[in-house]
């Protein structure tokens, strides 16, 4: 129903000089979707108040409501083109009046978990990049076609928005930063089996894929209005450093049905882990922290094991942030299992001694589009040392790629065998007592050889590099062409 509308919005943004990539298209459509959503939320709250005999205080002053500045209507409910701003008037109103007004909400909000605070945070962090007020008018008209009234509409919008996030991930070589394959997330959740009443956390939440999938998993298990209230306000928690990812994560959770997401815009690693207390800990942690980054020396001082590798700092944060008996599933580079530097060895020792690392899922090349590293998923429970690690070597029997991604069926055997830690051609167990205590090397070494995993040939790798370069070059050339033909 709404798919063509999303395509039309992207086509309009593609023509605007201020929007040069898939990231810009998603960011700009996100803030407009957010404001359109607020109009629907306001209407719902007003209707609830009317039914209960209460007065309703609108969130926004009248002049800044969607139905006034963005999409005024005639008495018959049709678009009022005479009253609607366009061109420079519209662009200037958005840039000099609307955004400053909305950014002020952060200062006035009663707390960070309110919708008012989220409004202020979102509009403090991003700006309108659509340079043509006429393009902006066209995009607004398309966004106004979208409706948030029914669960069916919200469900379809959430799927389309997920597709946009996936395209963002595929748009560059840092794909994994924005998009973790949903089949992998669902398998991680199936293994951890979170329960209603438990607090679930992602300290590097990006576009909030883990939290959204966990919400979908638990919503199917809700049996009362109390359960639903618990899921709305006391279950899902996230932190995100980057402004764009933060905004997209907020919008993604809203589209999935969480009204005021508990996502905080902060550098998680800026927090000293010695300051984490019992009240700050979580029952379940699901995450794919950024790897390959380098943190400054002052950030490293927040951790007992000093390293510049972002993912290794996040691992320390996650272990510290788990409650006793808490469960975690963390995506990390496979080199974590075997690197011999002091930080890697110390971190493996910490994990094995303070947690039960019961499962390691070895993911094949191509699991993450645009990311040139192999990954594993670590499943562990805090509170008892590891005695035995069960390894599973995922082999879908084909080369994974952009047109042939991981799917739910690929992970069914893993989820089924993991429950009993079953041995097979692709799975085996290793006793920790047998490990070399000087390195704690946990390399994935299938004792039976397992099925042969077909490695890509150099020619195939070069073809993919060439295709990625062509995509990037095409985007740059298109942007230059738009500038010179203005």
Order of helices and strands: HHHHHHHHHHEHHEHEEHHEHEEEHEH
Strand residue percentage: 5-15%
Task: Give the domain tally.
Answer: 3
Largest sheet: 9 strands, mixed
Please name the CATH topology of the largest domain. Rossmann fold
Low-confidence stretches: 450-456
Largest beta sheet: strand ordering: 3-2-1-4-5-7-6-8-9
CATH class of the largest domain: Alpha Beta
Q: Tell me the name of the CATH homologous superfamily of the largest domain.
A: Vaccinia Virus protein VP39
CATH architecture of the largest domain: 3-Layer(aba) Sandwich
- Tell me roughly what share of residues is in helical segments: 40-55%
Number of strands: 9
Number of helices: 18
N-end to C-end Cα span:
34 Å
Alpha-beta content class: alpha/beta
Mean pLDDT: 88
Whole-angstrom Rg: 24 Å
Query: What is the global morphology?
Result: globular
Features of the shown structure:
486 residues; alpha/beta; Ferritin; Rossmann fold; nine-stranded mixed β-sheet; 46% helix; DNA_methylase_A-5
Give a description of the structure:
With 486 residues, the protein is α/β, with parallel strands linked by helices. The chain has 3 domains: 3-147, Ferritin, CATH 1.20.1260; 165-455, Vaccinia Virus protein VP39 (Rossmann fold); 462-486. The chain contains 18 helices and 9 strands. It has helices spanning 3-14, 22-52, 66-70, 87-103, 105-108, 115-125, 133-143, 151-171, 175-178, 182-192, 209-219, 225-233, 243-256, 297-300, 310-321, 342-354, 412-418, 458-484; strands at residues 200-202, 236-240, 262-265, 282-287, 322-333, 355-362, 375-382, 388-393, 427-431. The protein has a 9-stranded mixed sheet. Strand 2 (236-240), helix 13 (243-256) and strand 3 (262-265) form a beta-alpha-beta unit. Residues 450-456 have low confidence and may be disordered.
């Amino acid at each position: 129903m709404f798919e063509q509308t999303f395509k039309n919005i992207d086509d309009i943004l593609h023509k605007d000089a201020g929007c040069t990539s898939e990231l810009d298209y998603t960011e700009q459509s996100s803030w407009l979707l957010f404001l359109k959503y607020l109009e629907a939320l306001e209407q719902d709250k007003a209707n609830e108040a009317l039914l209960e005999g209460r007065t309703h205080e609108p969130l926004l002053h009248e002049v800044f409501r969607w139905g006034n500045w963005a999409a005024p209507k005639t008495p018959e409910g049709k678009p009022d083109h005479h009253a609607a701003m366009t061109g420079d008037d519209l662009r200037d109103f958005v840039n000099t009046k609307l955004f400053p007004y909305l950014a002020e909400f952060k200062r006035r909000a009663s707390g960070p978990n309110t919708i008012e605070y989220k409004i202020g945070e979102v509009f403090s962090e991003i700006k309108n990049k659509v340079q043509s007020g006429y393009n902006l008018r066209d995009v607004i008209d398309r966004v106004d076609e979208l409706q948030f009234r029914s669960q069916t509409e919200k469900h379809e919008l959430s799927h389309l928005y997920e597709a946009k996030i996936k395209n963002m991930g595929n748009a560059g070589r840092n794909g994994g930063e924005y998009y973790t394959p949903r089949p992998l997330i669902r398998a991680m959740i199936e293994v951890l089996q979170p329960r209603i009443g438990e607090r679930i956390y992602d300290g590097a939440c990006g576009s909030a894929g883990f939290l959204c999938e966990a919400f979908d998993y638990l919503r199917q298990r809700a049996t009362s209005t109390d359960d639903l209230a618990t899921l709305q306000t006391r279950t899902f928690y996230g932190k995100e450093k980057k402004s764009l990812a933060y905004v997209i994560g907020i919008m993604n959770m809203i589209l999935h049905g969480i009204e005021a997401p508990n996502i905080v815009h902060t550098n998680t690693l800026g927090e000293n882990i010695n300051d984490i207390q019992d009240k700050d800990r979580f029952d379940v942690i699901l995450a794919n922290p950024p790897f390959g980054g380098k943190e400054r020396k002052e950030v490293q001082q927040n951790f007992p094991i000093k390293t510049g590798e972002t993912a290794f700092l996040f691992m320390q944060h996650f272990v510290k942030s788990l409650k006793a008996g808490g469960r975690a599933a963390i995506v990390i580079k496979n080199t974590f299992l075997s690197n011999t530097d002091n930080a890697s060895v110390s971190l493996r020792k910490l994990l094995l001694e303070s947690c039960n690392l019961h499962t390691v899922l070895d993911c094949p090349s191509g699991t993450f589009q645009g990311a040139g590293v192999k990954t594993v998923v670590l499943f562990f429970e805090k509170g008892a040392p590891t005695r035995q690690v069960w390894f599973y070597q995922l082999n879908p029997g084909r080369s994974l790629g952009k047109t042939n991604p991981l799917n739910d069926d690929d992970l069914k055997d893993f989820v089924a065998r993991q429950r009993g830690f079953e041995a097979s051609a692709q799975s085996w167990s290793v006793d920790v007592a047998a490990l070399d205590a000087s390195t704690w090397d946990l390399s994935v070494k299938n004792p039976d050889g397992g099925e042969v995993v077909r490695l890509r040939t150099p020619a195939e790798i070069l073809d993919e590099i060439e295709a990625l370069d062509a995509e990037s070059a095409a985007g740059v050339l298109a942007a230059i062409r738009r500038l010179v033909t203005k």
